[in-house]
Amino acid sequence: MDLELDGKRVLVTGASKGIGLAIVRAFRAEGAEVVAVSRKTTAELEATGATFVSADLADPAAPRQMVETVLEMEPRLDVLVNNVGGGDTSGEVLSDPFGGGADAWAGVFALNLGAAVETTRAALPALTRSRGAVVNISSQNARDPRNAPLSYSAAKAALNAFSRGLAEQVAASGVRVNVVTPSGTRTPMLTAEDGFGADLAARRGIDQDALLAMVPQQAGMVTGTLIDPAEIARAVLLLASPTMASAVGSNWVVDGGALKTP
Ligand SMILES: NC(=O)c1ccc[n+]([C@@H]2O[C@H](COP(=O)([O-])OP(=O)(O)OC[C@H]3O[C@@H](n4cnc5c(N)ncnc54)[C@H](OP(=O)(O)O)[C@@H]3O)[C@@H](O)[C@H]2O)c1
Q1: pTM for this prediction
Q2: How far is the CA of 189 from the centre of ligand 1 (A)?
């Protein structure tokens, strides 16, 4: 199947590992040029041949500066993937039924919502010229806020609303906006020694491997196993493909059956 992504210029945020890295690899395999953004690069990202740009996208000024840098390198952009995101894993947040205090909420919203809004705002003129596509990475927790801090679930729910609304606003200019919603996915967020999974396991007083084994069942995933990031990447590529002109404002769930509503 030719997705017509060969030679397209793609910007992926949160790209050095996990789902973002899988997305970079998948676009590269289709012959796309990729600019990959995170705070630090990794050997795995370097091996993809993507161009790396460093930015801390939790800083409200960073998305515009980053997009300007990317477009100064080459004034062309066909696809934007707003993948960066994650929760605040501090003890204060994990132990608080409110998902942390005002500062924690501001930080989580900055990374999961603000980065996507401001990156898209800055990239929209270039995407309009190319009649391009935006794909935003949400989470099961946006619609099923049981198993994550409320600040994270609420920020992802806001990302869903932003994405659906923007899809409507920009459709006439030829830009398509869509969302992919993963459930538990095997990435450093869950598997790293210093990530959300490790903090959650420590908080519950259990081994991290035991926690990883419990995630699918607790999330309601009927597959019983964590998702391979490459699966999320495949959904992103299809939504970004010019061959999918009618995919507008959609939210594709790839969650092992976790979300129970039709
Ligand atoms: N894994 C899951 O189970 C799961 C489930 C549902 C949704 N998601 C969503 O999927 C997306 C990717 O998650 P993941 O599991 O792949 O995460 P991950 O393994 O923690 O990777 C996060 C990526 O984002 C970068 N990043 C983090 N903070 C950043 C910042 N302030 N500025 C720029 N880059 C930053 C990281 O690199 P640096 O640290 O070098 O910056 C890394 O490349 C997120 O939006 C997440 O909410 C994940």
Answers
A1: 0.98
A2: 7
